[in-house]
Amino acid sequence: MRPSVKPTGFLIDLDGTVVEGDRLIPGAAEALAFLDGKGLPYRLVTNTTSKPRAAILAKLAALGLTVPADSLFTAPVIARDYLQCQGLTRCYPLLKSSLREDLAGIEFVDQAPQAVLVGDLGDELTYEALNRAFRFLFEGCAFVTLARNRYFKGAEGLCLDVGAIVAALEYATQRTATLIGKPAPEFFLPALQSLGTSPEQTAMIGDDLEADVGGAQAACLTGLLVRTGKYRAEQLEKSEIRPDATLDSLADLSGWLGG
């Protein structure tokens, strides 16, 4: 359904919505330019934990999309603030070392951590590292994950995402991880504060039915689904989550807004 009040601010997912692999999704740059022209603020938000924010910004710039650093919200940057607020500054990392630049103030250790921090290790994930995390968690340290997405669409097709690793650790330890990234409500709050809009005035646009649409709606935002990236019609049919609108791509946003 279409919300009765048009959104005045937008949170826009990155992978699968604006970019796919090493290219911009057709019409995405024009959609962002449309929002700029109408004076409608937006922020790009992503659960990507495979590269730091600086590398994401550099990739976007290489694709012709210049984005200010304070307009890109990533799970590691929000996690840094959460961990410091909770006093969890000694962490065992299940994530790529390149992400550490976004986690200033956090000490990464192999012994006596206060928390296990889970992100995307990709091909670097080993049984030894996973088992070490399991032992730390079994001993009682905090369990924090940057994301719990099931899968993402890479250059060669669908790929297993962080959620599968988190689920394995949760099963083995009989514990539930604290989620920092989407769909956690705490992820949306800093971006909303940056926009200066209320949840009811804001729409979240993405290709992930659960993390983007479901998470947004749970936080009282409008949830818009795009049929790009990892969108699957069969998932939508089986899910109880119902987007407020479904667009073929971000390129259709101007039409949805009546522009």
What descriptive keywords fit this protein?
5-stranded parallel beta sheet, 6-stranded parallel beta sheet, alpha/beta, 15 strands, 259 residues, single chain
Relative strand content:
15-25%
According to DSSP, the number of beta strands is 15
As laid out across the biggest beta sheet, the strand order is: 5-4-1-13-14-15
Determine the structural class based on helices, strands and strand pairing.
Answer: alpha/beta
**Elements, N to C (H/E):** EEEHEHEHEEEHEEEHEHEHEHEH
Give the radius of gyration.
Answer: 18 Å
Mean pLDDT, all residues: 93
The major beta sheet can be summarized as: 6 strands, parallel
Amount of helix? 25-40%
| Tally of alpha and pi helices | 9
- Shape descriptor: globular
Low-confidence stretches: none
Distance between the termini: 18 Å
Quick overview:
Helices cover 34% and strands 21% of the residues. With 259 residues, the protein is α/β, with parallel strands linked by helices. A hairpin with a 2-residue loop joins strand 10 (151-154) and strand 11 (157-160).
